[in-house]
Specification:
Layout (H helix, E strand, L loop, with lengths): L2 E6 L20 H15 L11 E6 L7 H11 L9 E5 L6 H10 L3 E7 L3 H6 L6 H13 L5 E7 L6 H13 L4 E6 L7 H7 L8 H17 L3 E4 L2 E3 L6 H7 L4 E4 L4 E3 L3 E5 L3 H10 L5 E5 L2 H12 L6 E2 H8 L1 H17 L2 E5 L2 E4 L7 H8 L3
Parallel strand pairs: 1-2, 1-9, 2-3, 3-4, 4-5, 5-6
Antiparallel strand pairs: 6-8, 7-8, 10-11, 11-12, 13-15, 14-15
Helix pairs in contact: 1-2, 1-10, 2-3, 6-8, 12-13
The structure holds iron/sulfur cluster.
Length: 376
């Protein structure tokens, strides 16, 4: 059940917190789309046509900067090479989702939208330098539902400096009122290469206090549980039957092919990542000089780390029997020994049999627990 990820590296406005790869100008869009199609045909041997349940995910950047004609050309070139009859997700900016655009996506075959709302507060949206308003955010979800998109996800950001628990509750109440079956909630991180990262270095802003983060996280988990959402991954919540299929593949070792600049790929044994530069990607794909991507074969230790890192992000956790099959009895025994202190503190919980997970209340600090369990 493989996945195809396509990175559309353009945005019409740069959000101040964003560390993804994108260019805030679209003049090379035609060249980029040709390069992505060329990469697709060069690498289609990596896709097993016999597999069913394959997924497509268009992320970015902002895939909704593509016109109807551009979508049609991309679909026509990718479909025969990477057939997909399962989940097809497109990340969308609320500002782009007009009724006409939504109906075009629906007719194309897109069956899931992930809408980057981030906040229902105009002040916060302006502060983050988002393109849309709170009113437009709500309207885009209602219009998507009217266009027949039932499988919808929205993104929200919490842990914003100055945000209170009461503000966050207000955001969550507005999200719940939209009746979307999936929600992703991310704690704001002040990444070095972003506007916020620069402000942090200059002493012009500070991260939110840890206790306030914890209060907002606790509210997030209890509020969404009360509203029928299952917390199935650190940042992801779904109503029954609406877990994200494509993204779940990343956390369960499903192979995927990533096309476009900065896209990553994984085949179970090796990883590949494309260069995070639009110009160098286009140039490299055109000339075929192979300087536009790198590959790495995973050692047994790296496969073990990968297993721990991905599985402990999920509520299904990791299975020591599977781990033993992958990494050997000795490595698994060492893992169990390293886990003991977390089992005693309740930060890691047994799920029955040989399965363990990070407790929901400890997920906010999952990175440090996972790093502690790494072999390398
Ligand atoms: S629209 Fe998305 S990818 Fe583009 S700058 Fe904003 S957060 Fe980043």
């Amino acid at each position: 059940m493989p996945g195809l990820y396509v990175h559309i590296p353009f945005c019409l406005q740069a959000c101040y917190y964003c560390d993804f790869h994108y260019k805030a100008r679209t003049d090379r869009k035609p060249d980029m789309l040709k390069a992505i199609q060329r990469e697709a045909s060069l690498r289609c041997g990596e896709w097993s046509a016999t597999e069913t349940g394959a997924t497509w995910y268009f992320g970015g950047g902002t895939p909704t900067v593509l016109s109807a004609e551009e979508w049609a050309v991309l679909k026509e070139s990718l479909s025969p090479l990477y057939p997909c009859h399962g989940e097809w997700t497109v990340e969308a900016n609320p500002e782009d989702l007009t009724p006409d655009y939504l109906s075009m996506l629906k007719q194309l075959g897109v069956n899931r939208l992930s809408i980057g709302i981030q906040s229902f507060d105009d002040g916060m949206l302006r502060w983050m330098h988002r393109r849309h308003t709170a009113e437009r955010a709500v309207e885009s979800v209602r219009q998507a539902q009217a266009a027949g998109f039932e499988n919808l996800s929205i993104d929200l950001i919490y842990g914003i400096p100055g945000m209170t628990v009461a503000d966050w509750r207000c955001q969550l109440e507005q999200a719940a009122a939209l009746h979307v079956p999936h929600l992703s909630a991310y704690h704001l991180t002040l990444e070095p290469r972003t506007v916020f990262g620069v402000r942090l270095r200059q002493g012009k802003m500070a991260p939110i206090q840890e206790e306030e983060s914890e209060r907002q996280y606790t509210l997030l988990t209890s509020f969404l549980a009360d509203n029928g959402y299952e917390h199935y991954e650190i940042s992801n919540f779904a109503q029954p039957g609406y877990r994200a299929v494509h993204n779940s593949g990343y956390w369960t070792g499903v192979p995927y092919v990533g096309l476009g600049p900065s896209a990553h790929s994984y085949d179970g044994n090796s990883r590949r990542w494309n260069i995070a530069s639009n110009d160098r990607y286009i140039q490299g794909v055109q000339t075929g000089d192979e300087t536009w991507f790198q590959t790495e074969t995973l050692s047994d230790t790296e496969k073990y780390d990968e297993y721990v890192m991905t599985r402990l992000r999920t509520s299904d956790g990791m299975d020591l029997q599977t781990m033993a099959g992958l990494s050997g009895e000795q490595r698994t025994a060492e893992c169990l020994r390293d886990m003991e202190k977390y089992l005693r503190s309740g930060q890691i919980q047994p799920l029955g049999g040989t399965r363990y997970r990070i407790a929901e209340h400890a997920w906010l600090t999952a990175d440090s627990i996972i790093a502690d369990l790494f072999a390398s």
